[in-house]
Specification:
The chain has about 170 residues and is mostly helical. Helix content is about 70%, strand content about 0%.
Length: about 170
């Protein structure tokens, strides 16, 4: 399919998007916590797929691993830009305010979920992305490592540290 996309086949591109857009958007949404930012990241991810499909090497990675690596890098870059913008005196930074809990969590305890969400967003980027890909994305540690370009051991260490940090913050609730 990527070979066809690499030659400009729009039907193959639409088929790839139909197959993967929901998951790409979900990963971006879980990472950044903003519907608008997740849509921007998903759009940019598929634009990169369109531009770079001809360079995809099936002997190096699975399509889903390659696609999620693109999304992971865009999410991490987005987080870095967001932090830089919040530090610079560029006027109103309301665009970067906490978006609150996700719609599917409305029935649950909003305050606690918002607290957990903020704690996850404060994790270092690699730990947060490993957690998002592992828990929300359903990827194995090996797949997460392939996506992030790190070893399985580094993924396990990132997940351990993320969970330890969260446990320390919410130990009174466990």
């Amino acid at each position: 399919m990527l070979a066809a996309i690499g030659t400009g086949d729009e039907r193959a591109f639409r088929a790839l998007m139909d197959r993967h857009l929901d998951r790409v958007h979900a990963v971006a949404m879980r990472f950044c916590g903003s519907q608008a930012d997740a849509e921007d990241i998903a759009q940019e991810a598929f634009m990169r797929v369109w531009r770079k499909a001809s360079g995809f090497r099936p002997d190096k990675a699975k399509v889903t691993t390659w696609l999620h690596a693109i999304v992971a890098n865009l999410c991490i870059d987005h987080g870095r830009r967001r932090r830089w913008k919040s530090w610079l005196p560029l006027g109103d930074n309301d665009d970067f305010a906490d978006s609150g809990p996700l719609p599917e969590t409305v029935v649950a305890d909003r305050d606690e979920l918002a607290r957990v969400s903020r704690a996850i967003r404060r994790l270092p980027d690699r730990q947060r992305m490993a957690l998002v890909l592992s828990v929300t994305g359903g990827h194995s540690n090996g797949e997460v490592g392939d996506i992030l370009g790190i070893s399985t051991g580094a993924v396990e260490q990132a997940l351990f540290r993320a969970r330890k940090t969260l446990k320390e913050q919410f130990d009174d609730r466990l």
